[in-house]
Amino acid sequence: MAVKQKPKYKRILLKVSGEAFAGHEHYGVDQKTIEGYAKEIKEIKDLGVALAIVVGGGNIWRGRFAPQMDRATADYMGMIATVINALALQDALERIGVKTRVQTAIEMRQVAEPFIMRKAKRHLEKGRVVIFAGGTGNPYFTTDTAATLRALEINADIILKATKVDGVYSKDPVIYKDAKRYKELKYIDVLNQGLKVMDSTSISLSMDNKIPICVFDITKRGNIKKIMLGENIGTFVR
User: Fold this and answer.
1) How many whole angstroms separate alpha carbon 181 and alpha carbon 194?
2) What is the CATH number of the domain that holds 119?
3) If we measure between CA atoms, which residue out of 182, 195, 227, 197 comes closest to residue 43?
4) Cα atoms found within 13 Å of the Cα of residue 157, Cβ hemisphere only
5) Is 99 part of a structural domain of the chain?
6) Are the C-beta atoms of residues 159 and 13 closer than 8 Å to each other?
7) Do 107 and 87 touch, CB atoms closer than 8 A?
8) Could you tell me the residue range of the domain that residue 32 belongs to?
């Protein structure tokens, strides 16, 4: 009889960027990519880990690409885009037997619950995956900041920042062959060096509340589970 592997973390917040939903495309939602994420998430659930997810919306809309538009309006459009991604991920998870709830900071009662902290915690206690959409519900804040806020509100042990690269580099590894990958960083180093881990608001909030961040490559199958089991994957900020 196989011995069940014990996860290092009991409750996690997974941040998935909008671009990750597009797969190899530059726009929209790639179904096969999302189905792959759903299978990995199920593996984490099977370890007994409580899991919440914050999704971005950059695969559908990025406000900064519309400089002529009012910034607040553009940001609200981005928040609505995150709901589309959340529903796509929910559908993929439910089809493989993972019970989920989508909560959004912008009320859309026909498709999702409004964000209520106590209710979110209750869902996690009942073994459901909670998908947070709508960012913080306020313009001028990114979904990175939303991820840190939600992680703190649900008492997560760690924030997993899913990207398309295998950690944080000293400079762009696509352009510079001598770019150095960091295994571990301090919050203050990220801020001082202007490293693109998460935005400065979310890093400062994480630092003030001492919640660790792991930046990793979500495109490599099995990475989330490896982190759960204590393997040194990606870059840790703490």
Assistant:
1) 15
2) 3.40.1160.10
3) 227
4) 11
5) yes
6) yes
7) no
8) 7-140+151-158
pTM: 0.94
Q: What amino acid is encoded at 42 in this protein? A: K
Burial (CB count within 10 angstroms: exposed 0-12, middle 13-18, buried 19+), residue 60: buried
**Pairing label, strands 181-182, 168-169:** antiparallel
Task: Give domain status of residue 198, yes or no.
Answer: no
Residues in Cβ contact with 192 at an 8 Å cutoff, skipping those fewer than 6 apart: none
Distance CA 69, CA 43 (A): 42
Residue 115 forms part of a structural domain = yes
Report the chain (238 residues): mean pLDDT per 10 consecutive residues: 76 95 88 95 96 96 77 94 97 98 96 97 98 96 96 98 90 85 94 90 96 94 94 93
List, in order, residues 6 or more apart from 206 with CB less than 8 Å away: 148, 159, 187, 198, 212, 213, 237
CA-CA distance, 111 to 164, in Å (whole number)?
Answer: 29
Tell me phi and psi for residue 101, to 5 degrees. -140, 135
Residues 231 and 36: their CA atoms lie apart, in Å, by 21
Q: How many domains does the chain have?
A: 1
> What pLDDT, on the 0 to 100 scale, is given for residue 197?
86
3-state SS, residue 110: coil
CA 59 from centre of chain: 14
